[in-house]
Amino acid sequence: MIIFAGIITLLYNFTMKKVISTQQAPAAIGPYSQAIQVGNLVYTSGQIPIDPSTGFLVEGGIKEQTRQSLLNVKAILEEAGLTMGNVVKTTVFMADMNDFADMNAVYASFFTEPYPARSAVAVKTLPKGALVEIEVIAFQ
């Protein structure tokens, strides 16, 4: 009976969705959450380089935009009680794959070994004309 109760509790924890939201990252601009926690996993929505204090894209190129996107991710994770060290998977969407080396240089400064798994893809356009959008999955 105790094992059955433990399994029910485990299933319950993995089916309950908790919204993660912070004013330290841009508010959602559509019908989505900044992040959702299910069990021990936190899934962030893609973060474009909006400065949460102004509501506008940061000025500059791919380096500045990558930094702001990752600062937004970091703020959301902190709201969930996590750090960038908890990230196990990232997806980087880029408007121009020619910017990969510059994006990667900034990206590397936010993570330490063991690095999260990552996908990086070029897309036709991103919201608000951003050059980069980054989403992560983190484990608690």
Cα distance, first to last residue?
A: 28 Å
Number of separate strands: 8
Apparent shape: globular
What does the average pLDDT come to?
93
Computed Rg: 16 Å
| Number of helices, counting only DSSP H or I runs of 4 residues or more | 3
Beta-strand content bin: 25-35%
Low-confidence stretches: none
Strand order of the largest sheet: 1-2-3-8-6-7
Q: What's the helical proportion of residues?
A: 25-40%
Biggest β-sheet, characterized? 6 strands, mixed
Order of helices and strands: HEEEEEHEHEE
Structural class estimated from helices and strands: alpha+beta
Explain this structure to me?
This protein has 140 residues and is of the alpha+beta class. The chain is built from 3 helices and 8 strands, in the order αβββββαβαββ. It has helices at 2-15, 62-79, 100-108, and strands at residues 17-20, 35-38, 41-44, 50-51, 56-57, 87-94, 117-122, 132-139. The relative contact order is 0.20.
Give a short synopsis of this structure.
The chain is α+β, with helices and mostly antiparallel strands and 140 residues long. It has helices spanning 2-15, 62-79, 100-108, and strands at 17-20, 35-38, 41-44, 50-51, 56-57, 87-94, 117-122, 132-139.
